[in-house]
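re: ur question from yesterday

yeah so i grabbed the chain u mentioned. its 181 aa long if i counted rite. heres the sequnce exactly as i have it in my notes:
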Amino acid sequence: MTGNERAAPAVKLISGLLYPSRAPELIGWSRERLAAILGRVERASESFPFSFTSYYDDIAPDLSRIFFSFEGLRDADGLVGWKKTAVGIEAESANSGARRVNIDPGYIDGARVVLASTKDNAHRVYVADGIFAEVTLCRRKSGWESFSFTFPDFKSGLYDAFLDKVRLDWRRDVRASGAVN
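ran it thru and got these structure tokens back, copy pasting raw so excuse formatting
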């Protein structure tokens, strides 16, 4: 590398899963599919009721969300591949053409939570291959801070305890690896 070029930062891969509350078996199925492709799940959150939007009513009207984090550090430039993997697993889950889960991969580092999306918006940056990135939360001394565009469920603080644990895992892994961020 020359000039101001830098290697991709080392991050902790996370994935949010929206699933029908009446179909908890989809948690295990999704976890197995994700782990087979992305590696061992290091941490799973509790399940949270999800009633922040009707956007996902094509999956089910009564949804829950759970998060997974994955072992080790990853290069942040894997975001596009992680989202494409998630889209593929969503398609595998389909029943009569309708997906049964929604998978939102992203990452955590010391300063932010970044999520991948296939949908463009003014606050998202195009990365590659039809995938956009969004800084959903940032870390300040007082904790996680949202933006005007942050999804209401992330803005609520409901997931903060899990995100804090994953951030600590990231710090531990960075120290152990000697990675420079």
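noticed a couple things. The domain at 12-174 is CATH 3.30.70 (Alpha-Beta Plaits). also The mean pLDDT is 93.
anyway ttyl
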